[in-house]
């Protein structure tokens, strides 16, 4: 079976490609923009394509003969111009679907995001049909539009489904934990809100488990979107404190009220929008909200239709990240 992983030079896409190549039933192809990361995959007998999914000719070329596409490529950021998110998340997904139809690709497994749920409120046990009154940023908006493209493709005859993994952690993480550690080393990390907010996180190993199950999913499981987590909600600031202690840091337990942090971030965003460079500010409203608000997700549908069961715990995922960080930083 020939499987193409898009976004394979990123954290999740790279981990997926590296895991799948161990299964001798699969021939793995990978695409991304970072040539050095692609070369690392090539050394593991993964066939690589460097290019841009916004180019339909490129996407048509690399999907010829492919059986399954794992679409992990995306612009994932709390900040940026809508046009960039449109191209990376909507246009690229549309191109993947069009090329899949042109080349008789059987199945697309789309990596989506639970950011579509976020609205600066506490939410518990969220199910897949929940939507806020307004999306919090361009990332959430365009990823939801990408999901709609994937869903339409299913109605048009392609085998598709979407996974929504929450807060991915593990070896190779380039986003969540590194940002917190950077703030810690700069003396800027403080508890936002009352420090009691409860969240779900997802081990990258568990996301890979969900992907493997999706490859073999039956017809009943297709055409759906699935929440994916470790299934073990935890107080966010307990989790952060555990990570810091494992790396010999001490959490500053001074608390900043959510409203104060949000208003500071809002002012910083307003200033950034006036700057021609449009550079992401040190604080974003979304970032403040994620650190202060509770969000837990119901994974019953994934358990029922995909037979999903988390294979790695929160603590094992944290240990995986810590060991990797110590050996690579």
Notes on the structure:
- The chain has helices at 11-20, 35-42, 56-62, 82-102, 138-155, 176-185, 204-215, 236-246, 258-274, 285-292, 300-305, 314-328, and strands at residues 2-6, 27-32, 47-50, 68-71, 107-111, 123-126, 159-165, 168-169, 191-192, 198-199, 202-203, 225-228, 234-235, 255-256, 295-297.
- It is of the alpha/beta class and 329 residues long.
- The protein has a domain at 2-166 and 203-228 and 297-311: NAD(P)-binding Rossmann-like Domain (Rossmann fold).
- The strands form 5 sheets. Strands 3-2-1-4-5-7-12 form a 7-stranded parallel sheet, sandwiched between helices. Strands 6-15 form a two-stranded parallel sheet.
- Helix 1 (11-20) packs across helix 7, helix 3 (56-62) crosses helix 4 (82-102) and helix 9 packs antiparallel against helix 10.
- The protein is globular and about 55 Å long.
Summarize the structure.
This protein has 329 residues and is an alpha/beta fold. The protein has helices at 11-20, 35-42, 56-62, 82-102, 138-155, 176-185, 204-215, 236-246, 258-274, 285-292, 300-305, 314-328; strands at residues 2-6, 27-32, 47-50, 68-71, 107-111, 123-126, 159-165, 168-169, 191-192, 198-199, 202-203, 225-228, 234-235, 255-256, 295-297.
H-E string: EHEHEHEHEEHEEHEEEHEEHEHHEHH
Q: Report helical residue fraction.
A: 40-55%
In terms of DSSP E residues, the strand content is: 15-25%
| Main pleated sheet | 7 strands, parallel
Instruction: Pick out the low-confidence regions.
Output: none
How many β-strand runs? Answer: 15
Computed Rg: 19 Å
> Ends: how far apart?
37 Å
| Fourth-tier CATH superfamily name of the domain at 2-166 and 203-228 and 297-311 | NAD(P)-binding Rossmann-like Domain
CATH topology of the domain at 2-166 and 203-228 and 297-311, by name, is Rossmann fold
Give me the side-by-side strand order of the main sheet. Answer: 3-2-1-4-5-7-12
Which CATH architecture of the domain at 2-166 and 203-228 and 297-311 is right?
Answer: 3-Layer(aba) Sandwich
How large is the count of helical segments?
12
Q: Mind telling me the CATH class of the domain at 2-166 and 203-228 and 297-311? A: Alpha Beta
Average pLDDT for all residues:
96
How would you sum up the global shape? globular
| Alpha-beta content class | alpha/beta
């Amino acid at each position: 079976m020939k499987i193409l992983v898009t976004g394979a030079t990123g954290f999740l896409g790279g981990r997926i490609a590296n895991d799948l190549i161990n299964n001798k039933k699969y021939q793995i192809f990978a695409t991304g923009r970072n040539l050095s990361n692609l070369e690392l995959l090539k050394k593991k007998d993964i066939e690589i394509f460097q290019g841009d999914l916004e180019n339909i000719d490129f996407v048509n070329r690399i999907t010829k003969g492919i059986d399954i596409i794992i679409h992990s490529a995306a612009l994932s950021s709390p900040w940026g111009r809508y046009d960039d998110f449109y191209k990376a998340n909507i246009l690229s997904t549309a191109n993947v679907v069009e090329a899949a139809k042109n080349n008789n690709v059987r199945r697309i497994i789309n990596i989506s995001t639970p950011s579509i749920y976020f609205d600066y409120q506490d939410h518990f046990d969220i199910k897949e049909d929940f939507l806020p009154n307004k999306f919090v940023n361009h990332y959430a908006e365009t990823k939801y539009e990408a999901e709609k493209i994937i869903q339409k493709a299913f109605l048009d005859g392609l085998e598709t489904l979407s996974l929504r993994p929450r807060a991915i952690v593990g070896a190779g993480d380039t986003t969540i934990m590194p940002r917190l550690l950077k703030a810690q080393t700069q003396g800027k990390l403080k508890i936002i809100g009352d420090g009691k907010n409860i969240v779900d996180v997802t081990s990258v190993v568990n996301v890979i488990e969900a992907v493997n199950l999706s490859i073999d999913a039956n017809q009943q499981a297709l055409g759906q979107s699935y929440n994916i987590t470790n299934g073990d909600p935890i107080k966010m600031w307990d989790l952060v404190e555990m990570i810091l202690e494992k790396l010999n840091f001490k959490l500053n337990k001074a608390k900043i009220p959510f409203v104060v942090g949000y208003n500071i971030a809002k002012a910083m965003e307003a200033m950034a929008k006036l700057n021609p460079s449009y550079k992401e500010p040190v604080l974003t409203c979304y970032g403040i909200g994620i650190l202060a608000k509770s969000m837990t997700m119901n994974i019953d549908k994934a358990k029922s239709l995909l037979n999903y069961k988390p294979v790695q715990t929160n603590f094992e995922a944290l240990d995986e990240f810590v060991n990797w960080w110590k050996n690579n930083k």
